[in-house]
Amino acid sequence: MIPFLEVTAFLSLLILLYTYIGYPLLLVVLRFVIPKKEILREKTGASVSLLISCYNEEDVIRSKLENCLSLDYPKGKLDILVVSDASTDQTDSIVREYEDRGVRLVRQEKRMGKTSGLNLAIPLAKGELIIFSDANAIYRKNAIKKLVRNFHDPTVGYVVGQARYTDPGRTMAGKSENLYWNHETLIKKMESDLHSIVGGDGAIYAIRKDLYEPLLETDINDFVNPLQIILKGYRGIYEPAAISYEEAAGTYEKEFRRKIRIVNRSFSGLMRLKGVMNPFKTGIFALEVISHKLLRWFSPLFLFLFFVSCFLLSASGRSVYQFTFLFIVAFTGMAYLGMLLSEKHIRAPLVPYAYYFILMNIASLLGIAKSLQGNIISTWNHARGQEDKVSENLLTRNRCIIHLFMAVLSIYAICLALHLGRIPLRFFTHLVFRFSLLLLGYVYVGYPLILGIVTLFYRRKIKKQEITPTVSLLICAYNEEEVIEEKIRNCLELDYPTDKIKFIIASDGSTDRTRERIQKFREDEDRVTLMQYQTREGKTAVINKTVPEIDSEIIIFSDANTMCRRDAVRKLVQNFADPSVGAVSADVILRGEETTLGKSGSIYYIYERWIQRKETDLGSMIGADGGLYAIRKELFVPPPPDTILDDFVISMTIVSSGHRLIYEEEAIAEERNFLSPREEFFRQARVIAGAIQSLKQRQGIPSSLVTREMFCYLSHKLLRWFAPFFLISLFLANIHLALSYGQPGYRMILAVQFLFYGFAFTGFVVKRRDHPLQTFLFPYYFCLMNGAALYGIYKGILNKQPVTWTKFHRLQSD
Fold this sequence. Notes:
Elements: H1 2-33, E1 48-54, H2 61-69, E2 78-84, H3 91-96, E3 103-107, H4 114-121, E4 129-134, E5 138-139, H5 143-148, E6 156-166, H6 172-194, E7 205-208, H7 221-231, E8 235-247, H8 252-272, H9 279-282, H10 285-315, H11 319-343, H12 351-372, H13 389-396, H14 399-420, H15 425-457, E9 471-477, H16 484-492, E10 501-508, H17 514-518, E11 528-533, H18 539-546, E12 554-558, E13 562-564, H19 568-573, E14 581-590, H20 599-618, E15 628-632, H21 646-656, E16 660-671, H22 677-696, H23 708-721, H24 723-741, H25 744-766, H26 777-797
Parallel strand pairs: 1-2, 1-4, 2-3, 6-8, 9-10, 9-12, 10-11, 14-16
Antiparallel strand pairs: 4-7, 5-8, 6-7, 12-15, 13-16, 14-15
Helix pairs in contact: 1-6, 1-10, 8-12, 10-11, 10-12, 11-12, 11-14, 15-20, 15-23, 15-24, 20-26, 22-26, 24-25, 25-26
């Protein structure tokens, strides 16, 4: 029995890991092994029929039709049909108001479902191409052109656009849904490059009309119809430039019932067209549809098998499965907490995603179960309308069962933990020691080493060119009377066409003589503009107020104490000749010799700049230097006004939009560093508090899970922020292992740690850059930064860091 359970647990875990992690990684590998299938894209004058499916859409249909009529496509070539599934509200009346503008209504007198409506409408469509859309999907003006251009390639049978959610962060359900959708979008793009995207998208996808076959009422058209096209030997591709916007479901209950319906009908359709899973018929597409859809739909079964197997094995006394089961309980507890918080509309990090994962797997299980029972859902209620009471009540009526299950599970987990407490302490300390040492080694040595090796073989080049777009250099200032005159003179001396650059100083309620100092430059008022805000609100609020008033193509953000070299702006701007570049960070050199930390800070910044250079070679660096960085104005997304780490969030939001953030080492500026360890401590603590805030609010985090940017974000930032905890756990575990068991290896590592921290204490005592023992300042600086990180994490978690910043006196010494 035990071997059978172990095999079941192992195979279930293996399938789950492949489904959620292995398959996306396999696609990444195959992209390098198998050449990308190029698509012959070209403008075409093909006639198009746009089919809008609806049922009781009076709230949105007028906006949809106005959007359709404003699309950038020849009017004589665009045929608009609204397919009403026996709507009982004012939908049909509103559509008839647009008949004189070429909109046609196709109505089913009896409600039979979306697919039946499409079967009725397709023969009436005039276009060579059919575009399917939902009533709440709003298209960009060029969306149809971007879709249609792909049909110039005779191998393309269907094209799927990019559906985006509007305001996904409004609710935790929306954020969870958006995270899942970003992951799906990445997979779709890689599938398209490899062979074909699996399935369409009801909001925006197009087919050749002559490839449409009448579907069964139970078929879900945006999945089954693409499968039919694949079986005819055509490709289905993803067109990310054809963009549609729609609202997220908004609540977990709505998304839950939507998922049941999709899986229920999709599974039924796949079983009817099983030939697509035959690699001798469809080639690598068979792997795609099995991995992306079939295994994903059945993952609840494998989760259940893994749960039960680990439970039985843990009860049999097998320690590895006892630890595994405790991890399962912890994850389930997070999902349970997410459910409770969602009922109270309370936001919290991480737990809603666990809840969403469990909920969607339950929905998949129910969808497949209904399909196997022959209960196929053919009609639908849109997510904004009347709730499907059966699906919703499944969540509400069974709350007591869920609570009871979690109570029993928690009691068992507590008993299991108490039982595990009898395992020798050495097991735990050994595990903690190795884990901490491994992570610290990776963060400070392994990650840079990987970057260095990878960039030897792969570098993403930047197409630089001498260009002179209009530029606005924005300086946010608070009580900067000490340096503002020098900053303005520095700006006016920059080597850039005077008619192409402006300097804007945004004063955040300054109470010193900053304004008077700026007014000395009245003769340059056509180039130097002061925007005076009376109330101090913080740098982010100032940026959000000022940027909309700027009409330049490029915005350069700079600190008042950052002095640019004459060619710095030219060096920054030349990178924007490359359309993939959205932001550029300069090389801001700290005047380290003026600080009590001496060369220690300089060594750290040399190390950081090297990493940023390699990240740029790989794709994008992680976070811009707030001292001097530039962005395309059109890519600016206002961060929340309480954002602490504005430069990180603004620049990483641009990265999430699909553009690059690069490091330009030839754009050089100098900044006066803080002059005392105390000031540097609080500056670093503020940075980490801002980082924790961005993590809690999911700001500045790469939008896709499997990307180079996410790899760099996790390695360079996230793990580095939490390094102090690994240092503490390593030290404490090392003490126990060295004193209790006395192995030479543990004693030697402990001696090295004591020596390092002894050096750090010596550096704390010396604290002078001209002291003969200044070598000890580096360990001191390292410990200072990690201590500041601990303090910053504390302030970030408890929201104790104010959004306004403290300005230290730069000429002060400690």
